[in-house]
Amino acid sequence: MHKKTIFFGAGNIGEWSLQLKPQDLVVYCFIDNDSDKWGTELHGIEINSPQLLEELSEDIEIIITVANKLQYEIVSQIEKYDFVYGRDIFTYDEKLLYGVINILPYDDSINSNSDNEKVIPRHLKEYITTHKVIPLSYAIEWTPLMYKDCCLFMTEFLTELAKSSYGLDNLMIMNITFYKGKFMYLDIDGLCSYGMNGLTTQRFIDMFVNPLILILKQPIKWYISLKNPMVLIKYKDIVGYLSEEENNYYLQIQQACYEAVKSSNFVECYKLWMDYMVSMIKKHNVFTNNTHAYLDYQDNLYKDLDESIISSQKQLIIFTWIDKIKPNTVIDLAGNAGYYCIANAKKLDYAIVADISITAIEKAYIYVVQKKIRNVLPVCFNIMHQLIVDNTNPFIPNLAYLSFKSIHVRFKCDLVLLLAVLHHLTLGQGFTFVDVLDKISPYINKYLIIEYMDLNDFAYAKNIKNFSKDKLLLYTKESFLSALKRTFIIIDTASSNIETRTLYLCEKL
């Protein structure tokens, strides 16, 4: 027998949901907390009091059709009638949009980053910070290995909240950051004193447990899920990747979780999922470990770090210049595995290692975690094609009302390093010197150290026939210096490890 469908919420979103629903979905009635609407109709469908839920059997499904800021409160209200989120209760975006992309209407009245003081238990403060901290990374800039550790952190955090009878509104991956050597939750306003509910638990499964399973199975393929933080991964998305044993264990945990939620035992619920994730992590190596042509040379630099030695002219020059200009913050925009940031970390407030290579950033992440280096942040992104989070765009679901900062605000530093990459971006990818310098300029507070490589450098001399004549004509030291002097004053120059490569220390105009 088909369940009867009830829409909870007879406002604008309820009306919009009627237009959105499949034609074969029949709405039995509306329920609304506004007593002025009781006994009236919306498009011919009766609107009732929530008391109706006391009279209905479990053969119904309730779709919450209210603004996302109210969904958690409504879930808690419905669960008092012994209905369970994920079994009987759904949000309209999950059910009507088939549970894949979470698209909630824009509501400019919401502000999850208020300046109001919120009193929270002392032992929870170690898990929480705010969107105001700098440097601040989001999941879109993490690697699969970082995502794995984030999932374990989130399970521990939710368990501690449940133990303290606290809940969490607006659970989303973009409200977590890696800060001072550990993962932390950003949205202090999301903490609520009325405890956990089924919606938080289901969002946790869709945003953390299920994506982690896909990343454990195929890290590179499913790395894209990190880049779209609005995707909810459902059971139907992962079942094809699970072995029969893994699937049976998953369904067993899921059923036990439903029972725990029904009895409000959320501590047990998160313990069950923690056990499942740990068992999957033990079976599958999340570290990508793919080949990367320019990775091995920093393995030797790691040895220099461990032995506290300087083994090259390039290292000596860069360290000398850093001592001379005394920056408080540094970002290496093609930082590979993070040598220069890590080596200078003790002199800095913080340093950011950025690279397009997942494997390189995972190596940097592993190193800073193992060595407990708290002020080095590894991030993975393409400096020429950054994903800029725009909190003014009402069509970005769930992000429009949150105080997400753009990448240039979060990662702007006193000194930017751009070493051994300029030739790749120009000759290899077709960007001009002006293109590259315009892209990196917003990250720079004051200083830039950049490396230029001549065309007769051994690394490119043997491949010069592969580049078009147009690119080769544009790639000259004169063109480079002309572009550089548009925005910078050259303070000092020096030969790098070989004469065909030159380092420039510059100050921003």
Search tags:
single chain, 16% strand, 17 strands, 3 domains, alpha/beta, six-stranded mixed sheet, 509 residues, Rossmann fold, seven-stranded mixed sheet, 38% helix, 20 helices
Q: Can you characterise this structure?
A:
- The chain is α/β, with parallel strands linked by helices and 509 residues long.
- It has three domains: 4-96, Rossmann fold, CATH 3.40.50; 122-283; 296-508, 3-Layer(aba) Sandwich (Rossmann fold).
- Helices cover 38% and strands 16% of the residues.
- It is built from 20 helices and 17 strands.
- The strands form four sheets. The protein has a seven-stranded mixed sheet, sandwiched between helices.
- Strand 8 and strand 9 form a beta hairpin.
- Helix 5 (144-163) packs antiparallel against helix 10 (266-283).
- It is elongated and about 85 Å long.
- The N and C termini lie far apart (73 Å).
- Mean pLDDT is 81; it is low at 97-118 and 387-402.
The low-confidence runs, each spanning 5 or more residues with pLDDT under 50, are: 97-118, 387-402
Strand order in the sheet with the most strands: 13-12-11-14-15-17-16
Number of helices: 20
Shape: elongated
Helix content: 25-40%
Identify the CATH architecture of the largest domain: 3-Layer(aba) Sandwich
How many distinct folded domains?
3
- Distance N to C terminus: 73 Å
On the 0 to 100 scale, the average pLDDT is: 81
Strand content: 15-25%
Query: Count the strands?
Result: 17
Described by strand count, sense and barrel closure, the largest sheet is:
7 strands, mixed
Q: State Rg.
A: 27 Å
- SS-based class: alpha/beta
CATH topology tier name of the largest domain? Rossmann fold
